[in-house]
Amino acid sequence: MRIVQTLSTPALCALLLGVLEPGVASAQLNEPPPPAAYALTGVTIMSADGAPRANVTIVIRGGLIEAIGGDIQVPPDAKLLEGDSLMVYSGIIDAQGEASVEFPEADADRSDLAFWAPPREAQGLTPHRRAADYLTDTGEDFEQQRRSGIVGAAILPDGPLMPGRGLVLLLRKGAETPAGLVLVPELGPSMALRGARGMYPSTVFGAVAVIRQSLEDARHHGLLLAAHERDPRGMKAPAWDPDWDVLREAMAGQVRVFFRADEAADIRTVLAMAREYELRPVIVGGAEAWKVADELLALEVPVLVSLDFPEPERWEPKETSDTAAQAEPLDAAAAREKQNLEERYANAARLAQVGVTFALTSGGGEADLLEGARKSIEYGLAEAQALAAVTAVPASLFGVEYVVRIESGMPASLVVTDGPLFGEDTKILYTFVEGELERGKKAKKPGEEPTVDVTGTWTISIDLGGEILRGTMNLTQEGAEFSGTMELDVGTVRVREGLVSGNEVTFETVYEDVGQTATSEVTGTVEGDEAGGSGRGEGGRFTWKATRSGPPQEVLR
């Protein structure tokens, strides 16, 4: 890998970063400071309730919305973010998101445990544990979520019985430690109607019995504490039990309890326990919540609706489209699957019709939140209700309403798009988390079936207005999508958002250096082991050629 002619590596850095214009590569590199402020002009703000406010200017400085209005002058030190007909939304909050939380394993040999009477740690009965204490992620681990418009996420421990307490994260780009992401360090306990593998309980009935017994034990422990406090004579001081402390808080209504339950029968079991022990439950998942909507409404129980829909196996949705009205009737198995899936798709709309409070979630990071919301809208959910379900509702449930307020003086946690948020072709241009900018994620437009596979190691040359940059490109393709890296003399350049349509490719390159990020949009065609095309970055236009030289090596995703 080498640079041809006389272009210096610092000058190439400058060109890739957009610091210098093409043709002045011999100029000295002077690293510019980060923008003092950002400005958006002539945008339409869509508040969390879906009400529009057109032709607005927003100035963001120091992490806050400095000014907002129709007659705001753009400060001279602000970087103007360009785009036509931009729309601004409150940042998305995934009410059941994904993060790396590593709870410790039970300190015991499972083969030596009595499966009918295991210790709490092995059984999964540890409501005192806080996910915040075992979080391992930092800000850089949430790039993809931010690029998808997600600014915050609730992390709810998954496991048998009572695995622990969740937390709420604000996906700050610059967070260098896990603590820098934590917005709410402690939610109420998560619970599930299942036991640990190979341990009692092994049935829903048994799990309910263990949960009920635990609540009774916590209540009894509280009575002992109260009796000792009134008069300690004649009794030893009860031992401190952090698990029972948490459960007593739940029975006192001080915290919500997050129950994972999908089937209507399980949800009714949760509601029965809630009435008996005066719990404040939240249903997590709730695939059949629509079947018990009236009961949920009567007890004012919210639902975190998972959009992690099963993939059809027998039913092909296109067979029932308007263009396929003459298609053959579905067989019995496909018809049942169609009914079950469409009930899942319509779940949120049916809850909204009754008046049940709900948020839409990725199901723990398993689903694309916006894509799932579009499916719910297709099956009857109003767009305004969908917007509230990914912004205002989760913010209210977790007590962080200010995160979604687009007002002067409030933290700037926003999503900027080139069209309606739930539009299939809408591109998320920018996501701000407390004023830190992350460039957005392109909408995936359907194209032709790929006729080429770009997987492999490629020797690449990039023509930057007469100056040539050489290196290697490592790509891996799955279906129509691909990603990878370029290794150039200026450093590592990431390849992302790659899409193959026929023999045409589109992708983005991302170069990061000295605290700055430069993104280029690239297009091209592939013929066998030869490829080439053009691109445009912040430093100008360029062309590229590549030849496949071998199989792929380790690819940075």
Strands, helices and their partners?
Layout: H1 9-17, E1 37-46, E2 52-61, E3 64-69, E4 78-80, E5 87-90, E6 92-94, H2 120-123, H3 143-147, E7 150-155, E8 164-165, E9 167-170, E10 182-184, E11 189-192, H4 204-230, H5 242-251, E12 257-261, H6 264-277, E13 281-285, H7 293-298, E14 303-306, H8 332-345, H9 347-354, E15 358-361, H10 369-378, H11 383-389, H12 392-397, E16 414-417, E17 428-433, E18 436-439, E19 456-464, E20 467-478, E21 481-488, E22 491-501, E23 504-513, E24 516-527, E25 530-537, E26 540-550
Parallel strand pairs: 1-4, 1-5, 6-7, 11-12, 12-13, 13-14, 14-15
Antiparallel strand pairs: 1-2, 2-3, 5-16, 7-9, 8-11, 9-10, 16-17, 17-18, 19-20, 19-26, 20-21, 21-22, 22-23, 23-24, 24-25, 25-26
List keywords for this structure.
single chain, 557 residues, alpha+beta, Lipocalin, Urease, subunit C, domain 1, 8-stranded mixed β-sheet, 8-stranded antiparallel barrel, 26 strands, globular, disordered N terminus
